[in-house]
Amino acid sequence: MKKSVLFLAAAALAAGCATADKQSPKNTINQDEVMSKLSLEDKAHFVIGTGMAGFSGNDAVIGATRSLVPGAAGTTYPLDSLGIPAVVLADGPAGLRIDAKRDGDSATYYCTHFPIGTLLASTWNTQLIEQVGQAIGEEVKEYGADVLLAPALNIMRNPLCGRNFEYYSEDPVVAGKTAAAYITGVQKNDVGTSIKHFAANNQETNRMNNDAHISQRALREIYLKGFEIAIKESKPWTVMTSYNYINGVYTSESKDLVTTILRDEWGYEGTVMTDWFGGKDGAKQMWAGNDMLQPGKAEQFDSIVAGVKSGKLSEADLDRSVKRILNLVEKSPRYQGYKYSNKPDLKAHAAVTRQSAAEGMVLMKNGGALPFAKTVKNVALYGNTSYDFIAGGTGSGNVNHAYVVSLLDGLKNGGYTVSDELKNAYAAYAAECKAKVEAEIAAAAKKDPKNAMLMRFMPRPLPAEKQFSADELTKQAAASDIAVITLGRISGEFMDRKAADFNLSDSERQLITQVCDVYHKAGKQVVVLLNIGGVIETASWNQLPDAILCAWQAGQEGGNSVVDVLSGKQSPSGKFTMTWPVNFTDAYSSKNFPVDQDPRIDMTNQGSKSANVKNVDYTDYEEDIYVGYRYFDSFDVPVSYPFGFGLSYTTFAYSDAKIVENGDAYEVSVTVKNTGKHEGKEVVELYISAPDNQAANKPVKELKAYGKTKQLAPGESETITMTVQAADLASFDESASAWVVAAGEYQFLVGASSADIKATLKATVKAQQTKVNNVLAPQTQLNLLKR
Ligand code: BGC
């Protein structure tokens, strides 16, 4: 990469920008003047990032910008002599990811590890999610970053996707609304977000070179819909394109996706950037409207300059992207001269994460073990992750947190006592397992330091569960009031989960069986807690324990949040945003998912799409629109837990369901009454069933809106109103390239889950059609599932 004259001219990166605080007038960039001073080379530099240490071979530029906020994923390119600073882009979904420590600096820069995306979505509480976003955004701003590389919004197409923990749902409405709330919250701080990964990054295996073959209808109704909802509702400052191809074209090189759909149809006006090292042809990415290439590679610079010189890329297209990045820089706290404190309110944010995490936990079974009875004082704690609670997944979705509250500490904080004998046994076992892992990493580092770095960045298999003899368990059962067993799972980018990760291991199965057996014989109850990022198999063992709570990966206050729920301080009110299949192969997408394949890790996209291995080089989305409950419901396939399911410590009655037509809108209201003895909140779900849906090849029902009550005291009621626009009822008709609402009588189903419909209302809807562009058609024949 040729070094820019402008870059060399500068040392103090932020010096060129005017100083301002919130009260001062907004500083503006005179774009015409800046543009008039930029050479072609300057522009080519400006649209690509400043590189990534160890990967881009561009260490001079990286050195200068990395020091802005160490550990941030990247920056924009500074034009210092023109007063245009580099702005800082940092991950990620569960909180800001920057280095916690800096060389020669005794201060620490820890960030709050908030709950994973899946947990946030499971709250179905957009107000709460907005508050979490606001807290995350405050850390972004106070640590001197400008754009948060989040939220991540891909559809949970298959239970084994390695990044499902960062994502929200198998349903685009839940995903879109959750993302919109998160973005609104973060951006309230006048910092940016980057909604990602646009689009269809639904597997990690060969993620940089996988071609997703998807019908236009499934793209429009499922894989793009969530982005459309979030982008229109919340206007993220940036959009991050994904790594994969869609129907033969890299998303970052697809004008149809990045310009025709995103900008022309949805009216998006912000900046589009690639995922890190995503795509191949810099000139084509610019032409497509992907404004910024991150983190930047020498080839991209060369490709853009050569592209303009040869006429392959018009300079006007390049200018347009330069201007969009200038718009982004202009809005940034760094350009506005914001004096960040490096002291976000970590204490207040610990309270936010604690409360939000408790609200997204899902009670799956309760035979009376929860909340703990007043007589429960001594808790016997089993499972490795009870003592080493998993706050979140690995990779760019991780956060450098100061601490994680384990379940052990959470129980102690809650006033419970725990068995010291068990604690000591687990501590010794953990030390043994840790030593083995460190030895493996040290051996790998000897061969190649990059390997060791990767091993730390990526998920490591968790150790087998420690086993106990019947005598040991009997002794523990006599000394404790209840047993809690935690099962853990961890995953992250670059790799999908293995089939074995979905199923229970032998050691887990044995632990649950034996503990339940011994405790039940002793007249004591057993609670299983799931500290996981994605769904697991439950059908073969869920009859054994007395209660099951899905705590997800609940962030750094995890143990405290769990104990808030176990103790009854907070009634669980989370519901699943995905289906829990009996076997993962029950999901139709499993026929076309890279189960237990070589992940083909390719850090900087050196690979090629030459081979043609099914589900690795290309993936046929043959389930079409039948993703998640749309499949299980429509084809009567039994599940372990349906979409939208979640129990409470109390019970709710639904009454007075009504539908009112208001122009083109349908307002559905229902009164929810707390009929139990505990306070609690209820999520209300609104599904639509289309007329003649068999003939129209539609799912039996689709979620269109939802609401959540406030905390209801026993006996208290609240009326929830949910609004659906007639246009929301449309399906995508490929032959007409249009969203089509078929005329007829629609059923509006008010449910407590997709499988528990409380009231059915009806309304006659008029036909409508909205034409859109005929783009992104598959290039291969797909054998699509139909009803
Ligand atoms: C991930 C993105 C992330 C980026 C920067 C990529 O590997 O896919 O989600 O924002 O790295 O860290």
TrEMBL record:
One of its GO terms (biological process) is carbohydrate metabolic process. The keyword RNA-binding does not apply. Transmembrane segments: none annotated. InterPro entries: Cellulose_deg_GH3 (IPR050288), Fn3-like (IPR026891), GH (IPR017853), Glyco_hydro_3_AS (IPR019800), Glyco_hydro_3_C (IPR002772), Glyco_hydro_3_C_sf (IPR036881), Glyco_hydro_3_N (IPR001764), Glyco_hydro_3_N_sf (IPR036962). The keyword Thylakoid does not apply. Residues 1-20 form the signal peptide. Keywords: Carbohydrate metabolism, Glycosidase, Hydrolase, Signal. SUPFAM superfamilies: (Trans)glycosidases (SSF51445), Beta-D-glucan exohydrolase, C-terminal domain (SSF52279). Its EC number is 3.2.1.74. One of its GO terms (molecular function) is glucan 1,4-beta-glucosidase activity. Residues 682-754 form the Fibronectin type III-like domain. It is an enzyme of class 3 (hydrolase). Belongs to the glycosyl hydrolase 3 family. This is Glucan 1,4-beta-glucosidase. It comes from Xylanibacter ruminicola (strain ATCC 19189 / DSM 19721 / CIP 105475 / JCM 8958 / 23) (Prevotella ruminicola).
